[in-house]
């Protein structure tokens, strides 16, 4: 069984990818008539309010509530099939710095984990496509008939520190690999928002990538002990979601993050 000494953990939306994956999934479910006409109308209202008021968090909160509301009773296999088609066919925009850092970590023998607040089945598909060893999102409960119940584990999932420790335990218990947080030589964590702060507390190297205003405030309160990286605003558009992407970022700087 593989012994893990070094680990890289990355957030997904806004950190690895420029896009919010739940937006694409909701749009696809509406287009394929899995979600009813009313869902499309509600989504349109949310999007207009976001564009007019520019309050992104309100938009995302509304999306999650809409998704939970209309997901209830839907067949999981049908929803997952659409998610797979979405990931395989929709152009994904990756931030070059994070995608290259991930590749360097993999090449250096790091175990890599993708951790997100997007639906678990969607994160798993994307994680596999991007080459992560393990991927975890919010789990949406399914009944005996294979249909979503409308319930999810969002309570625990919002505490990424707790979830990450649970992932380490799961990997060891299921004998996927042997990993112990206390024995890790390197734990690099990358995130862009205030929701990532709890897992920064576990990191030996925490990277705030294109941080939100709230995360910058938290960074200042931390005594600037996390690495602050202003990333590239010119996105790299790729086919599917996975590609080897290189940027002008300093190779020595990235290697320093993995060995510090």
- What distance separates the N and C termini? 26 Å
What fraction strand?
15-25%
Order of helices and strands: EHHHHEHEHEEEHHEHEHEEH
CATH homology group of the largest domain: HAD superfamily/HAD-like
Q: Structural class given helices, strands, pairing? A: alpha/beta
Sheet of most strands: 6 strands, parallel
The third-level CATH topology of the largest domain is Rossmann fold
What's the β-strand tally?
A: 10
Structurally, the number of domains stands at 2
Q: Mean pLDDT score, rounded?
A: 85
Descriptive overview:
The chain has 260 residues and is an alpha/beta fold. It folds into two domains: 182 residues, HAD superfamily/HAD-like (Rossmann fold, 3-Layer(aba) Sandwich); 68 residues. Helix content is 47%, strand content 18%. The strands form three sheets. It has a six-stranded parallel beta sheet, with helices on both faces. A hairpin with a 5-residue loop joins strand 5 and strand 6. Helix 1 crosses helix 4, helix 2 runs antiparallel to helix 3 and helix 4 packs parallel to helix 6.
């Amino acid at each position: 069984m593989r012994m893990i000494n070094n680990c890289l953990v990355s957030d997904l939306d806004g950190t690895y990818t420029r896009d919010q994956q739940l937006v694409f999934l909701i749009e696809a479910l509406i287009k394929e008539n899995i979600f009813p006409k009313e869902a499309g109308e509600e989504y349109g209202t949310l999007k207009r309010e976001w564009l007019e008021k520019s309050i992104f968090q309100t938009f995302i909160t509304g999306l999650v509530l809409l998704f939970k509301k209309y997901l209830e009773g839907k067949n999981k296999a049908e929803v997952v099939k659409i998610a797979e088609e979405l990931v395989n066919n929709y152009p994904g925009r990756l931030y070059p710095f994070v995608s290259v850092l991930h590749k360097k970590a993999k090449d250096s023998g790091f175990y890599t984990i993708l951790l997100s607040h997007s639906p678990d089945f969607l994160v798993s598909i994307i994680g596999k496509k991007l080459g992560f060893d393990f991927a975890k999102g919010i789990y949406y409960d399914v009944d005996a008939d294979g249909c979503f119940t409308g319930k999810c584990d969002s309570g625990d999932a919002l505490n990424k520190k707790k979830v990450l420790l649970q992932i380490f335990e799961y990997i060891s218990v299921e004998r996927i690999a042997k990993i112990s947080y206390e024995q890790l030589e390197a734990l690099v964590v990358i995130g862009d928002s205030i929701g990532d702060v709890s897992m920064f507390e576990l990191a030996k190297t925490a990277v705030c990538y294109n941080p939100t205003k709230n995360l910058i405030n938290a960074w200042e309160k931390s005594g600037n002990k996390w690495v602050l990286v202003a990333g590239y605003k010119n996105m790299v558009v790729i086919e599917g979601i996975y590609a080897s992407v290189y940027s002008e970022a300093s190779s020595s700087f990235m290697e320093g993050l993995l060995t510090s």
